[in-house]
Amino acid sequence: MNASERFAEAARRYLPKQLRVLFIAEAPPAFKVIRLFYFSELTDGDTLFLEMMKVLYPPEVGHIRGSFRPGSSVKQMRQRKPELLRKFQSDGYHLIDAYEQPMPDGADTAAKTRLMRNTLPALLARVRQLVVQHDVPIVLIGAITYSVCAEALRLDGRNVANDAMINHPARGGQVLFRSKLEAVLSKLAE
Predict the structure, then answer these.
(1) For residue 131, is it left (φ>0), alpha (ψ between -120 and 50) or beta?
(2) Is the Cα dihedral 29, 19, 54, 38 positive or negative?
């Protein structure tokens, strides 16, 4: 099984029976680093998973008001990753990438935007398969993902939950990611 198939299989393993919220990030990490949101054996990196769990499950991961309580840590979160992914799945959450392949090394914003725009029809087809009910919220993560996909998804009748870009946490935007995602999810809970 090649890296792309392994990535797809790992994501399918955690597909919820009933989707409550679909998260769409930019692209998977480079295949050579063998990291993915749905891979449970990781010992480093994994920022999107870690920050997402801090927002969705703060008491469970011991992350309260921006810091870990005593006895909780990133290492423990990684050790509990299979359990947390099952909770993510059972709560109806799922994450996909707008662009299914890793972005080329050294690609700038313009190149990434162009690549994502070129595959927008494929993303819309995947979203239509996953999101049968048009009212299911879709949360877009990352500047390029938001700028390329938000309007196209809205024109397709989809419920894009965020009105602005949510920073991707792997690019130094952990605090902004958490605060913006918390605001969007709070709005959804109203």
Answers:
(1) beta
(2) negative
Inter-CA distances, 58 with 1, 52, 74, 166, Å: 35, 10, 12, 19
CA-atom Rg of the chain in angstroms: 16
Tens digit of pLDDT for each residue in 48-78? 999 999 999 999 998 988 888 888 888 888 8
**CA angle, 68 then 94 then 58, to 5°:** 15
176: tokens are: 């902004």
CA–CA distance, 64 with 97 (Å, rounded to integer): 28
Domain ranges (residues) in the chain:
3-189
Helix axes 143-155, 109-118, angle to 10 degrees: 30
Handedness of CA 36, 165, 92, 135 (dihedral sign): negative
Is beta strand 159-160 parallel, antiparallel or unpaired with respect to 137-140?
A: parallel
Fold of 3-189: Uracil-DNA Glycosylase, subunit E (3.40.470)
Q: Which positions ≥6 away from 80 have C-beta within 8 Å?
A: 61
pLDDT in tens, 109-155: 999 999 999 999 999 999 999 999 899 999 999 999 999 999 999 99
